[in-house]
Amino acid sequence: MSELSFEQMLDESFKTIHNGEVVDGTVIDVKPDEIILNIGCKADGIISKSEYSNDQSLDLTTVVKVGDPMTVKVLKVNDGEGQMLLTYKRLAAEKGNERLREAYENKEVLKATVTQILGGGLCATVEEARVFIPASLVSDSYEKDLSKYEGQEIEFVISEFNPRRNRVIGDRRQLLVAERAERQKELFAKLQIGDTIEGTVKNVTDFGAFIDLGGVDGLLHISEMSWGRVENPKKVFQVGDVLKVLVKDINDTKVALSLKFPETNPWANATEDFAVGTVITGKVARMTDFGAFVELAPGVDALLHVSQISRAHVEKPSDVLSIGQEITAKIVDLNEADKKISLSMKALEEPEAQEYTEE
């Protein structure tokens, strides 16, 4: 039996490695754009920056140091120059995909940082595996600008898992919908008609404002915004305003709100404040051909009939009055039940002197 040469002994001391094999190694050198590993072969293995991370601005010397152990995958045993090409990124992504598969099958809630904003949604990375969250599944309401999510840590579930087609879809919306439903359930369990509750203006329309009560949206109709008249809700409220509102009605999941609190009702002391015979000052709020409506207080309009404007003949109110004009008149009638008040300016005028002729 012949003795082996030193070179043969050396060759046999190295293990044989194949493409696609997962191996362990030790870092023997690090440069900004590549890592060199000793993996127990005649040739050292090389990991390029692009095979370590998707971040091409990364300086590898800041994340890896000589002596670090690494588990990698062999891409090519010989690249033609006697070098062995390795990948860290792809092996990590495979492990990440397995993690995503488990999460998909178990309907597990994952938490990850948003790494990229795209026109159609967000990208998050779970253990080097990429998850795409379409814009329609980012929130439970439409969001035009997704840039605020960049760098944020968010929770989601995997709703579609097909790595072969590069389709791993995350869904954040269903978590928010479920969370909102739970908050609604809790709120409706304790919410009562007549309660005063704090809410935030979520949206303002021509007919009212939608108020977020903490998982439940209530409608503050334009007619319930004030005891007085509100012409345009958008001039009164802005999205984000915090209000204390009165729960006026609850119908299934619909909540009607009001800012007309009983203690501020201007008609509460009408018999005293607007007693017949009282001389009062108000502003002309609107006019018709038959008279002018005068605001005596927010929510209290009184009718000044055209026949009560002056002892002189007035064809129509706009001939002598204007919107916003302040007038003084006497209250000549009060119908508290129907919330109607009648005024007279004529009653404050001195009667014309009557002429008497002797026969």
From TrEMBL:
PROSITE patterns: S1 (PS50126). GO terms for cellular component: cytoplasm; ribonucleoprotein complex; ribosome. It comes from the Bacteria. Keywords: Ribonucleoprotein, Ribosomal protein. GO terms for biological process: translation. InterPro entries: NA-bd_OB-fold, Ribos_protein_bS1-like, Ribosomal_protein_S1-like, S1_domain. The keyword Metal-binding does not apply. Residues 20-89, 107-173, 194-260, 277-346 form the S1 motif domain. This is Small subunit ribosomal protein S1. It comes from Faecalicatena orotica.
